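#struct-pred

JT: dropping the chains for the assembly here, can someone run the whole complex?
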Amino acid sequence: MKIKHIPILSAGLLLLASNAVAEDTIALRAVNKAGEVIDAALVAYGGAEAITNLNVVARKSNFTTWATTQSLQPGAPWDQGQTSNFAAINFSEEQFRGATKGSGGGFDIDAGQLINGESSYTFDFRAGTMTAVAEPDFNTTSGPFIRVTAPLLVKQLQNRRHTSHWLGETEFDGRAHDVVTLVMEVGPALSLYFDQETHLLSRSERVLAPFGQIDYRFKDYVTIDGIPFAKTFELYADDQQNMLIDRYETVVNPDFAQYLELPKDLEAIAAAPPASTEVELQELAEGVFLVGGAGTFVMFVEMDDYVVSIGGTAGVPERIAEFRKVVEDKPIRYGVLTHHHNDHVLGVAPYQAEGATVLTVKAHEEVVRAAATDGEALKLKFVDGSEWLDGGSHKIQIIDIGPTPHSEHLLVAWLPEEGILFEADHFPNPANGRMAPAQPVTRRLAEVIDARGMDVKTIVGAHSARIASREDLAKALSLLPVNAAGSSW
Ligand SMILES: [Zn+2]
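RK: done, full complex below.
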């Protein structure tokens, strides 16, 4: 088969090549014009040689983030979070160092990473631990830093100009711009907007299905060692501001050796086994199943005549299909949503398709209806405080534990007879079972468990395959944040 195809393919390519030379095709114009835009940008960014020699960049920044569709309440204005960040990249050696410290959504973070071949690690300064990275990936790890650093995008264009097409010219911020494409090693193509007068990058866009369009803005250029860097960076997701970065320090070509040092006070712990991407079923008790994979899980409870499905994260149809291998015929009467965040209402449409009534709180009605296939026809039942579902073989109490530091309202499912609690986003449960100091959200969950005198034996979550014990929760609560040194330079 292969041998037969080769001559045909070669002939086709030859034909294409000769046509391209003969005619001024759209593709040829797009490539040639992109080349002109890239050459002008290289001059504006200090010259081709300066960009070629731009090998190490280290930046300190303050990030303001807006928790779009991930705030305490369902609508705008979105909650703001603050983090301080450090990033340093070394292109020639494919090394990257990053660190982030701050809070948001009821979680405190003080973490970092080093990509350095065999000596690659993630650091949890809050927990005081470090974990070897089994398969370090320089391109994936450094991509987010490159995408928000204009001269590094120009460097990418320089190295990958064969991927670039001129898309056209357009006005942006009252100024004429040329738009060219860039395909990086990883991720969807970027559209880069270069000012026709200054030849500096003003804007970049990329489309991230199914989430929508991400729009980056580069502002307040300052020249460092002859290369203009944007001091301010803004990110919009579907026209809503999602991030503001203020760079207060940028260093060009420092010695990278200082960033390769490992923090001294961290305990090395074993890496978690890679998460399974297969949908798997675990039986927690008779008729109670945790089904999921790839970081999203649903709990199914088999009643006498019907089924209750709890959790609304990605992949509900596949989880239902897996559950159907053990319980074939009973209808799913209720689908319980934990909260209104965009990654927890994906189950609404599949529950509606099953003919189920969706359980939520009144305050989340609008978001939940919007997530349905037919919002008006969606059957809803609102939980006010708490609600019992008694289906004979099992009793489930759906409890609103809000307000929590993560959501004004948050539903958990509690099976008192089995001692099983299902929660979302309030108890991080690492696959290796190594508990970290309890987050503010976990302390809130524990308060509710205490106040209600719940005899919890098992905790399962919307984002973990691991079944946690009450000892795991006690362990997390007993640990205090270490906040070890080493996260900043
Ligand atoms: Zn959430």
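JT: nice. The chain has a mean pLDDT of 93. Residues 339, 341, 344, 406, 425 surround zinc ion (CB under 6 Å).
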